[in-house]
From TrEMBL:
Keywords attached to this entry: Membrane, Transmembrane, Transmembrane helix
The protein's name: TMM33 protein
Underlying gene: Tmem33
Organism: Sylvia atricapilla (blackcap)
The family this protein is said to belong to: Belongs to the PER33/POM33 family.
Topology of the protein relative to the lipid bilayer: Multi-pass membrane protein
Cellular component, GO annotation: endoplasmic reticulum; membrane
InterPro entries noted in UniProt: PER33/POM33_regulator (IPR051645), TMEM33/Pom33 (IPR005344)
Length: 232
């Protein structure tokens, strides 16, 4: 009754569980490398479906207007719909599947707990314990996802020069990264950029750091800072 009363949430729960299943079979290619590539695409397509459903839930009344598009781009679900479209037809990259896998796992765990609560307050204690441990590590998981989002930017450039990516991919991914940096709901991308800058600045101020490395890092920090969008 709980599942039927929340059909859209249940559909997203099922698609997230399927995303976790496909992502796991890509990361751990138990059925062979050829099958792993197909599971990579299935995971991203399932994530695109979940993101589209979530976006519809957040913005139910679609309008073909600039204002609606601007509002949609503020939603995290729109960001990951774009993310899925960026990588779904690209060369499989293990690094790109982790954000999809971990976000799906976190959201699926939250809804699974609701399903268990609707069934009984004491049902499946072992599963409840696992869900609690996952929830306790949520902040670390979100930081890890943000780290993946950041380091995928140079990875897309590397893929371009190695012949495994398209010319447009780095530019579209840069747009995705600016959306994540400006996210209202998830500040972890901004936080990781700040933390990485502090770490690099701390390392290059040490006397053992060569002058040319210091200058190169400062130039890189200045360049990335200019590219960063302004956040309200």
């Amino acid at each position: 009754q709980f599942l039927m009363a929340n059909k859209l949430d249940t559909a997203m729960w099922i698609s997230r569980l399927f995303t976790v299943y496909c992502s796991a079979l890509f990361v751990l290619p138990l059925l062979g490398l050829h099958e792993a590539a197909s599971f990579y695409q299935r995971a991203l397509l399932a994530n695109a479906l979940t993101s589209a459903l979530r976006l519809h839930q957040r913005l139910p009344h679609f309008q073909l207007s600039r204002a609606f598009l601007a509002q949609a781009l503020l939603e995290d679900s729109c960001h990951y719909l774009l993310y899925s479209l960026i990588f779904v037809n690209s060369y499989p990259v293990t690094m790109s599947i982790f954000p999809v896998l971990l976000f799906s796992l976190l959201h699926a765990a939250t809804y699974t707990k609701k399903v268990l609560d609707a069934r009984s307050s004491n049902s499946l204690p072992f599963l409840r314990n696992l869900l609690e441990k996952l929830n306790a590590n949520q902040q670390n998981i979100l930081k890890f996802i943000a780290c993946n989002e950041i380091f995928l930017m140079p990875a897309t450039v590397f893929m371009l020069f190695s012949g495994q990516g398209s010319l447009l991919q780095p530019f579209i991914y840069y747009r995705f990264l600016t959306l994540r940096y400006s996210s209202r709901r998830n500040p972890y991308c901004r936080t990781l950029f700040t933390e990485l800058r502090i770490v690099v600045e701390h390392l290059i101020t040490k006397p053992a750091c060569p002058v040319f490395v210091r200058r190169l890092c400062l130039s890189g920090i200045s360049f990335i800072s200019r590219l960063a969008p302004t956040v309200a």
